[in-house]
Amino acid sequence: MIKNAHLNTAILLFAQTAKADALHKPLAHNGELIDVLNKQVTRTAKASGYDFYHFTEVEQRGVGFGTRFTNSIQDVFDKGYDSIVCLGNDTPLLTIKLIQDAAEALNKGKAAKGKSLDGGLYLIALHKKNFDASAFQGLPWQSSHLAVAFNRYITAQNQELEVLEPLADLDTEQDLEDFLSGKDAHRSIIRLLLSTLSRKQTHYQYFHKKTISVISLLPLNKGSPKAA
C-alpha cells in the first residue's frame, strides 16, 4: 500500500539474503555479519516512513548485477510508485535523515546520490518518468567508476542531482577494519558488529582486540565532509 501518496516514493533495498550474499563477497566466511548489516539497513529504511521493499535473490530477475538491479527498480515502479530510493546493505552509517533527504530531493524534482568512499554509490534516488532502463543497466556497476558514470546518466536525463554526504561501505576485510577503527563509527553499530565478529573469534580476533578499546573513546558521528 502506498502510504506517502503526496510523494509516491518507495524505498528499495537491493540486497541478497546473508546466505546468498556471503557466497559472492570477500566477507563470505561471515554470513552472520552480513545478516547484521541487512537488519541494520532494514530498520533504518522502515523508520524513514516510506513504503519499503527488500528484493533478495528470490525477487530479483535476470543475469548480472545491472540487469537484476534494473529489473527490480522497474518492478517497484510497476507497483504504482513515481519515484524510488535505492539502497544496498553495506553502509552501516546510513541514517534515516539521509534517506529522507533523498526523498525530499525527489519531491523537488531532482535525482539524488550518496557516494561511497570507494567511488561506488550507497544510495540512488530516481523518478520513474526519467528512468532509462537500457542506459541505467549499462552503467559500470560494482566499479570505482560508477559515481562519475551516474552523474553523466543524470545529466543525459536533464535532471538536477542532489549529492548526499559520502559514506564508507564494507566490501572487504580491509573495509571492515578501517570502519571499526574510524572516528565516524557509531558506538551502537560497532557493538553490533563486534558481537557478531566475536562468534568468529579465530579469524576476527585481530579486529576485536584492536577495536574493543576504541568503543569508549569514539564520539558519536557528527557527519563526514560533504561531497564536492
UniProtKB/TrEMBL annotation:
Q: What SUPFAM superfamilies does the record point to?
A: Nucleotide-diphospho-sugar transferases (SSF53448)
Q: Could you tell me which Gene3D superfamilies the record lists for this protein?
A: Spore Coat Polysaccharide Biosynthesis Protein SpsA, Chain A (3.90.550.10)
Please state what the protein is called: DUF2064 domain-containing protein
Q: Which InterPro entries match?
A: Nucleotide-diphossugar_trans, Trfase_1_rSAM/seldom-assoc
Top-level taxon: Bacteria
